[in-house]
Amino acid sequence: MTRGVISVVALAAAVVVGLAQPRADATRRERQLDSELYFQPSAEGVRLAASGFEEAIADGMWVRATLIFGERYASDDSVLWHAWLTSVIGVVSHLDPGWRTPYLYGGGMLSAVGLTTEAADVYERCSRELPDDYWCPFARGMNDLLYNDDPAAAARWLAVAAERPGAPTWYGAAAAAMQSRAGQRKAGVAYLKEQLATTDNEGVRRSLEYQLGRLQHDELVAGWTEECVARRESGRRLRNPEELPPKGFSLPDNPRGDAWVVGADGVVRSAGAEVERVRRVRRQEWALLHP
Predict the structure, then answer these.
(1) 23-32 exposure pattern, b = at least 16 Cβ within 10 A, e = fewer
(2) CA dist., res. 221 & res. 263, Å (int)
(3) Which whole-number Å values give the CA distances from 279 to 59, 253, 272, 273, 284, in the listed order?
(4) Per-residue confidence (pLDDT) for residue 126, from 0 to 100
(5) 107-111 long-range contacts, Cβ below 8 Å, gap at least 24?
(6) Which of 59, 71, 106, 229 registers the highest number of CB atoms within 10 A of its CB?
(7) Could you tell me if 109 and 203 are in contact, meaning their C-beta atoms sit under 8 angstroms apart?
(8) Rounded CA gap, 85 and 104, in Å?
(9) Cβ-count burial of 17 within 10 angstroms (0-12 exposed, 13-18 middle, 19+ buried)?
């Protein structure tokens, strides 16, 4: 084989290796991340192994959970990842049950990845372990309101929170206001703003901001729904959203971040909210036709 042929073959091999290297690096990274999740600890197992160092181990596990959460919250929706996160947050709170941070942020992390039932368990454990902390039952109740659309359950937990030492005076009023949609929205907005003020985790912030935008959007729509319906019934149905505000005024920015539209029912709402409303109506119609 001549030197020229050898050089060409070597160059081709180098190109192939160079093109393959990024994929190899990505595969290695994926496997490394997956290996981080294979160990799913049990609370009793770790407690027995801790031998008096429960708090130190809880600290280390918590740091690890927050670091891995930062890498995965927006890119991983696997059962393995969800099970691992739930397991680690549960173990940390069992090893150091008087430590408030894993309840406060752990519940938010679980909600941010869609594990709202698991988040409710964390808040409920917090309420039991910290009987003088008003935030724990408050968060438990707001979880029922925001994610389960269960204002009755939320009212019960807010009433518990209102009885705790130092609880804000508006907790009791919020519990009573759960009978109305307006009261539910106001309590939800206050809770989400409070959560946003106490977290710097990007994933949790995105989840909270999304929920806050939905509630603020619903508050705006509730304020003009009656007028929209009245116009429709009088034959003056809106043709586009900008006809709604008086002359010289414009619609506020949409908290949901998408376009304002006139719904099929004549009410101005966000495009995404209209899609959700139509889907609900169709499901209800299907249920009536197929009892």
Answers:
(1) eeeeeeeeee
(2) 11
(3) 45, 25, 11, 10, 9
(4) 95
(5) 107/139, 107/143, 108/195, 108/199, 108/201, 108/204, 108/207, 108/208, 109/65, 109/66, 109/69, 109/73, 109/85, 109/201, 109/203, 109/204, 110/85, 110/86, 111/143, 111/147, 111/204, 111/207
(6) 106
(7) yes
(8) 15
(9) exposed
Residue by residue, DSSP assigns 122-161 as HHHHHHHH-TT-SHHHHHHHHHHHHHH--HHHHHHHHHHH
Site of tokens 């929209």: 228
The one-letter amino acid code at 47 reads: R
Amino acid occupying residue 113: V
Q: Model-level pTM?
A: 0.70
Q: Can you read off the two tokens belonging to residue 178?
A: 């759960």
SS3 category, 269? strand
User: CB-based contacts of 51: which residues, under 8 Å, 6+ apart?
Assistant: none
Mean pLDDT of the region 102-112:
92
Q: Of 29-43, 195-209, 266-280, which has the strongest mean pLDDT?
A: 266-280
Which amino acid, residue 135? W
Question: In the structure encoding, which two tokens stand for residue 76, read together?
Answer: 């991983």
Strands (E), the chain: 260-262, 268-270
